[in-house]
Specification:
Layout (H helix, E strand, L loop, with lengths): L3 H9 L4 H18 L3 E6 L7 H16 L3 E6 L2 H10 L6 E2 L2 E2 L3 H24 L5 E5 L6 E5 L7 E7 L2 H8 L3 E5 L1 E3 L5 E4 L1 H12 L3 E6 L17 E3 H9 L7 H14 L4 E5 L5 H7 L6 E4 L4
Parallel strand pairs: 1-2, 1-11, 2-8, 5-8, 7-10, 11-13, 12-14
Antiparallel strand pairs: 3-4, 6-7, 9-10, 13-14
Length: 299
């Protein structure tokens, strides 16, 4: 017998049985289509520091695994690195949006990314089962790196990706959680932009999708007008936007990472607002989606 109190409470929250059923039916073809597909998800922004968003993100990742997708999580941790450097009394210097990284700053970055942020993500996911395995791009020779710019110190660029360790984890139905640290042939570590790492890993894995959870709702042609969001775009269209200045400032590297990932082998890239609970599910499993989808062909 239906409990009228429970039913009323669910309806008041917008989750009536009818709406729940509709959502499941709408998701079904997407679940069938993407079963077995690799989805690389870059976690950044508020979703990394807001406990509620961290919890819902973990739920989304576990749900993807549970319905047959193969998620790979890549994360940075710029806010957390900056916070610890401040506590240590070390002032951060930025050039072109990248933190100048000396030996001390690199040690802090490795400690925060691998020892704190990565462990927190793994812990949130593993509340639901022993699914996630944390690692650094240094592990198993995953990310071969080189200096990006001598003036930036130990800030790296991706030279090559060896996905063997990821392949083995995915074959065991495990979820890799990867910190954006790489190393060169001599074992020197480098801090690498997490957007770049996610794109490079997605390309090498020939992922179905690479998803960037950020602090913006997607690609806006006018950053002050949310109604100008671009739902779908091709690489040619994005490159034209960059050329004519429609895309500028801090949006350029985000869009560039999407373009590079798709050009190199990922089937599509997505920019989503990580501040929206369950944004990942809304994008992958609903007709309307959320954010911006970038593909290699015309839209």
């Amino acid at each position: 017998m239906t409990n009228p109190v429970t039913t009323t409470a669910a309806a008041d929250r917008g989750f009536s049985p009818e709406l729940r059923t509709k959502a499941l039916v709408e998701a079904l073809p997407y679940i069938q289509r993407f079963r077995g597909a690799i989805v690389v998800v870059k976690l950044g922004g508020n979703a990394m520091v807001d406990p509620d968003l961290s919890r819902t993100f973990a739920q989304d990742i576990v749900l993807l695994r549970s319905v047959g997708l193969r998620p790979v999580v890549v994360h940075g941790g710029a806010p957390q690195i900056g916070e610890l450097l401040d506590r240590l009394g070390k002032k951060s210097e930025f050039r072109n949006g990248l933190r100048v990284t000396d030996e001390e700053t690199l040690d802090v970055a490795r400690m925060v990314l691998v020892g704190k942020v990565g462990r927190d993500i793994v812990g949130q996911i593993n509340i639901h089962g022993a699914y996630a395995v944390g690692m650094s791009g240094e592990d198993g020779g995953l990310i071969l790196a080189a200096p990006k710019d001598p003036e930036l110190g130990f800030v790296g660029k991706v030279v090559a990706v060896n996905t063997g360790i990821i392949d083995r984890l995915l074959s065991e139905d495990l979820i890799p959680v990867i910190s954006s640290i790489g190393s060169d042939a001599n074992g020197q570590a480098y801090n690498i932009n997490a957007d770049t790492v996610a794109g490079a890993i997605a390309a090498e894995l020939e992922a179905e999708k690479v998803v960037y959870l950020t602090d913006v709702p997607g690609l806006l042609t006018d950053v002050d007008d949310l109604s100008t969001i671009v739902a779908r775009a091709s690489i040619d269209e994005l490159e034209a936007f960059i050329a004519d200045g429609t895309i500028s400032g801090g949006m350029v590297p985000k869009v560039g990472a999407c373009i590079d990932a798709v050009k190199a082998g990922a089937k599509s890239a997505h920019m989503l607002d990580g501040r929206v609970p369950h944004a990942l599910l809304l994008e992958l499993f609903t007709d309307g989606g959320i954010g911006t989808m970038i593909t290699n062909g015309s839209t």
